Amino acid sequence: MDIQKTILDLREELNLHNHNYYVEDKPTISDFEFDQKLKQLQDLEAQYPEYFDENSPSQRVGGTITKNFQTVVHENRMYSLDNSYSKEDLQDWEVKIQKVLGNVPLQYTCELKYDGASISITYENGKLSKAVTRGDGFQGDEVTNNIKTIRSIPLKLKGNYPQKFDIRGEIILPFEGFEKMNLDLIEIGETPYSNPRNTASGSLKLQDSAEVAKRPLDCLLYFITGNNLPFSTQFEGLETARNWGFKVPTQSKLANNLDEVFEFINYWDVHRHDLPYETDGVVIKVNDFNHQNELGYTAKSPRWAIAYKFKSEQVTTVLNSISYQVGRTGSITPVANLQPVQLAGTIVKRASLHNADQIEKLDIRVGDSVFVEKGGEIIPKIIGVAQRGNQLEPTKYISHCPECQTELVRKEGEANHFCPNFYGCPPQIIGRIQHYISRKAMDIEGLGGETVALLFNNNLVKDYSDLYELTVDQVIPLERMAQKSAENLVNGIEKSKEIPFERVLFALGIRYVGETVAKKLAKHYKTIDALSKASLMDLILVDEIGDRIAQSVIEFFENQNNSTIIARLKNFGVQFEIVEKHNPNATEKLLGKTFVVSGVFEQFSRDDLKKAIEDNGGKVGSSISAKTDYVVAGENMGPAKLDKANKLGISIISENDFINMLNES
Ligand code: AMP
Ligand code: ZN
C-alpha cells in the first residue's frame, strides 16, 4: 500500500465531506463515518510524521497556542463602507457616481450585510496561507491557526484559481450556536455572552485554537482582491468564489437599476428575520470592475459601494429603576425596569444591562428617557439616552448585595461583580438547590423551582442535603401542597438516590463543571474521594480539563461546608462512585500481561482493541518498554516501533493472533 497516497486520498475525501456539510449543507455520509475516516487519517499522520501538512483536515481540531498575535500589514487595504439610511441617500449616491462615470448604464450587486468580524484570508497555490483581522484597515492581527478551525473555510481550493489572492468576509456566530453556547454557560453558572457579533470577534483572539474549534463559528465571504483575477464584475466574483469552495451566501442579486435595488432592500428588511444569522443591512456595489476603478476610493471607503442600514426596531421609554439580580454563583446582573412599551409586536418592560461597565458606558440614569432596541437577541437592549431625566449624578453601581448586604467583589478581568457570601446569600442557596434538582442533574420528580424557594423560606432546607430529611408532614403545610403531592415530592427525592455519579457530580454545582466536564471527571476518577484528593496538577492532566476548571474543583473540595454536605449525601445513599457495568464477555485470560497497540486494524478500532485487552484482564501500555509482553501490530506499524520491539525481544502479534488468544480456552 502506498501510504502517502492513502493519506492524500483521505485528506481529499475529508475536505469534500467538510464542504458538503458546512458549505453546501448537504452531507453525503454519516457523522460516524466521517469521524472514522478522520480518525484513520489522524492515526496515519501520527505514524508517518514525514507527511505532515499544516493544511490537513486533521488540523481543524486546533491545539496551537498563540500568546501574542503578530501584526501583519494588509497587502490591500481593508476599507470601511459609507452608510445610507434611506432611498434618497441611495439616489444621491447614484447621482454622485454617475457624474464621474458620465451617466452610463449601471448594474449593482446587492448583498446582505453580515454582522460579524471582518477577516482577510490569503490563499497561495490554492492553499490557505494566512488570515488577518481587519484591525485599523491597514494592518491587523494574524489569526491563521484560529481561522483554520472553522469548518466552512476551505483549506484547499478546487478549480482554476490564481496563484495568490485575498478573500474577505465576515466571521459570524449563527443564532443557534450562539444560544447553545449561552445555555452551556448558564449551566455552569456563568454569565451568558451579550451578542453574537462580539462573541465571534472575541473568539478570533482566543489563545488556544482548540477552544476556537469548539465554537460554532461560520464564515461568509463577499470579496476577492488580487492580480489576474479571472472575472471582471463583483457578481461573477461571488460565483467564482463559490466554485472554488467558499461559502458565499446565495441571496445576492444583480440589479439593473435602483428600483431593483429597492426591491431587494424591501424584501430583506422583512425576511432577514428568517435567516439563521444576524444581518444589519444591505451592501450595494457597482458591478463592473472598470467602473469601480474609475470611481476609486475616498480616504475611508470605496466610492463604488455603499451600505444601506436596516432600521432596527426602536422605541423610547422611561427608565423607572435598575434592579440587581443575584445568580446561583453569586454573579450580579443589573436589569433595567422600563415604563412598559410596545416594540416589535411585544410589550417590553425590562432590558438587560449586562454589567457595571455597560451602565457607565451608556451613562443611563433613573428617570432618563432611553432608546430601546430589539436586535437578533430575544432580550431587548438599551442603546442610549434619548433625554436626560432629573438625576444629576451618574448611576452609582451597588456596592453591597441587595439580598444579603455582603460587600460585592469584582475579580480582575471579570465583567460582573459577585456576592462572595455563597453559603449565606438566599438566591445563591436557592439557586444551587434548584440546579441540584433540575432535569439534567438529579431530575427530582414532584419538586419544582418554586417549591425549593418555599422550602428554603420556611427553614425546611438550607442546602441540598437537607432534602433527604424532609418528611411528608413537613411539606403538607406549604402553599399548594396536599397529601398526594407531598408524598410524590418525598418519593421523588428518595428515587434520586439512584442517579449515577456523573450526574450527581454535575448536580453539586461546582463552578465551570457542566454536564460534559462532570462526565469526564467521573469517568477518570471513578469516586468522589479520588476526585476530592486530586491535586491541581493531577486535574489538569485529565483530558480537556483546563486550569480554570481544575482550580474551581480544588476550591470546592477545600471548603469545609461542601465536605460536610457531601458526607451527609453519602450517608443518605446518594451515588458517589461509578458503578462499573458488568461486561458478560469479560475474562481474566490476559491477566498480568501488558500490551502495546500499534497501527491500524481491520476488525477493531484502536479504542475497541484496547478495551478488549482491559476487559480480559490485560494492561495497555503507551510505549514499548521492557515491561511490554506483546505488541499487537496492525497495518502501517511504524518502523521505529518495530525495531524497538525486536531489539527488546518482545513478541509481535497480529490482530488475528490476538483474537485467537481470546478464543483459546
Ligand atoms: P461598517 O463596519 O459598518 O463600516 O461596515 C463595513 C463592514 O461591513 C465591512 O468592513 C465588512 O466587514 C462588513 N460587511 C458585511 N457584509 C458585507 C458585504 N456583503 N460586503 C462588504 N462588506 C460587508
Ligand atoms: Zn448576597
TrEMBL record:
Cofactor(s) in the UniProt record: Mg(2+); Mn(2+)
EC number(s) given by UniProt: 6.5.1.2
BRCT domain mapped to chain residues: 585-665
GO BP annotations, alphabetical order: DNA repair; DNA replication
Catalyses which reaction(s): NAD(+) + (deoxyribonucleotide)n-3'-hydroxyl + 5'-phospho-(deoxyribonucleotide)m = (deoxyribonucleotide)n+m + AMP + beta-nicotinamide D-nucleotide
SUPFAM superfamilies for the chain: BRCT domain (SSF52113), DNA ligase/mRNA capping enzyme, catalytic domain (SSF56091), Nucleic acid-binding proteins (SSF50249), RuvA domain 2-like (SSF47781)
Active-site residues annotated for this sequence: K113
Keyword vocabulary terms for this entry: DNA damage, DNA repair, DNA replication, Ligase, Magnesium, Manganese, Metal-binding, NAD, Zinc
One Gene Ontology MF term: metal ion binding
Binding residue positions for Zn(2+): C401, C404, C419, C425
SMART domains membership: BRCT (SM00292), LIGANc (SM00532)
Presence of keyword NAD: yes
Top-tier EC class: ligase
InterPro entries on file: BRCT_dom, BRCT_dom_sf, DisA/LigA_HHH, DNA_ligase, DNA_ligase_CS, DNAligase_adenylation, DNAligase_N, NA-bd_OB-fold
Annotated NAD(+) binding sites: D31, F32, E33, F34, D35, S80, L81, E111, R134, E170, K285, K309
GO CC term, one of those recorded: cytosol
NCBIfam families: dnlj (TIGR00575), PRK07956.1 (NF005932)
Family: Belongs to the NAD-dependent DNA ligase family. LigA subfamily.
Function text: DNA ligase that catalyzes the formation of phosphodiester linkages between 5'-phosphoryl and 3'-hydroxyl groups in double-stranded DNA using NAD as a coenzyme and as the energy source for the reaction. It is essential for DNA replication and repair of damaged DNA.
Name under which the protein is recorded: DNA ligase
